[in-house]
Amino acid sequence: MLDLKQIQCFVSVATELNFSAAARQLNMTQPPLSRHIQLLEHQLGVRLFERSTRTVKLTAAGRLFYAEAQSLLEKAHSAMLNVQRVVMGAMGNVTVSFVSTATYDFLPSAIAQCSHLCPDINITLKEMNTAKQLEALRLHQTDLAIVREPFIHPDCNCETLLQETFTLALPAQHPLAQKAGKLSPQALENQPFIMYAFSAWQPFYETLTGMFRSLEVRPRYVQYIGSTLTILSLVNAGLGLALVPESAAGIHFRNVVFRRVTLPADIRSSLYLIYRRDNDNTAFETVLKHIREAVKNANQNREENEAPAR
């Protein structure tokens, strides 16, 4: 096995072609430097230098080994830096799984910021429903899961990322689109309504249908859909109205407008961040920090936008 100290000594002598100068550069005396070169030559079984009382020259083998030795030192230095960066959380691989609505607001900005500031962290994004994300966490297939339902488990941390209200998406030509100010839920009585499907978005389905029952408002359900994007595309086609998370208002369709509705205070759309307590991937901590910062900025922007209406 080659000794890096011996290789460093060889490169220094090969560069200076002078043992005294090389010893000064390495902050050592000449006898131990000569010993390191001798041991290296013995291990390689070749002479690396032609020595005389006045000159030092590289042999043919020495010239070949010089290039290889420089590369070995560079790789060793790079390996040392990479290990240090991994420990500092500046390098590594992180998998982030998420429900689709997380991409409407904070997640893209968080990933962009992290990629800009930490280019050596490779982030893999996977869109999954909540159940599949929890299974991926259990199998250590994802580092961070962004889900719609809280998950309490002794092996995991669960924190609320954001809570937002629902906003009404409706065709631009609909009579309610022309009304100023907030709408009341009663305005949705007997309106064609596109609802989240129970099988795909159980929390939204139960929240919204339960609210309508408690308020004794009866929309006319025309479709049950599992995707916010598909719901908005149906609204765009004039097939009905829909309540969607406020962040979805950032999705632009030509024929869709958004109006605020006066909803009960507990009718909120929530996102939760879940990760394993035993995750020793230091890069995941860095990504987690950027996600938290992006959510904080998104919440501040939302509060500023809502301020004039209060």
TrEMBL record:
UniProt keyword DNA-binding present: yes
UniProt keywords, alphabetically: DNA-binding, Transcription, Transcription regulation
GO molecular function: DNA binding; DNA-binding transcription factor activity
Xref: SUPFAM superfamilies: Periplasmic binding protein-like II, Winged helix' DNA-binding domain
Domain HTH lysR-type as annotated: residue spans: 2-59
UniProt xrefs under InterPro entries: LysR_HTH_N, LysR_subst-bd, WH-like_DNA-bd_sf, WH_DNA-bd_sf
Gene3D superfamilies: Periplasmic binding protein-like II (3.40.190.10), Winged helix-like DNA-binding domain superfamily/Winged helix DNA-binding domain (1.10.10.10)
Cellular component terms (Gene Ontology): protein-DNA complex
Domain of life from the UniProt record: Bacteria
Record-stated family: Belongs to the LysR transcriptional regulatory family.
PANTHER family (alphabetical): HCA OPERON TRANSCRIPTIONAL ACTIVATOR HCAR, TRANSCRIPTIONAL DUAL REGULATOR HCAR-RELATED
Annotated protein name in UniProt: LysR family transcriptional regulator
